[in-house]
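Each record in this resource describes a single protein on a pair of labelled lines. The shape at a given residue is found from the number at the same position. The record below illustrates this layout:

***
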Amino acid sequence: MQIPTITAEIKLSVVPGRAAVFVDGLFVGHVAEFGGVGRALLVAPGKRKITVSLPGYQTFETEINLVANQKFQVKTDLIKSSIQTNPLPNQE
């Protein structure tokens, strides 16, 4: 992936930090890589779809429209999914 010469910056403050981050449907890393001092996700300006997902949690999605050199923060706590999976059906 080539880093664009003109960028916008997205900082992520999401719990849990091990959740996967997707920009426009492409995996870019994990939340912990894009938060804190000196860490951010650099993207080309324009309309971007940010998706944060982790098995067992509801997926978070947002669309943002960034201009050159803009700094944007995504802050959320993922909600545990209410769907319980039972890997073994009851056998009688």
About this structure: The chain has one domain: 8-77. The beta strands are 8-15, 20-23, 26-30, 41-43, 46-53, 60-66, 71-77.
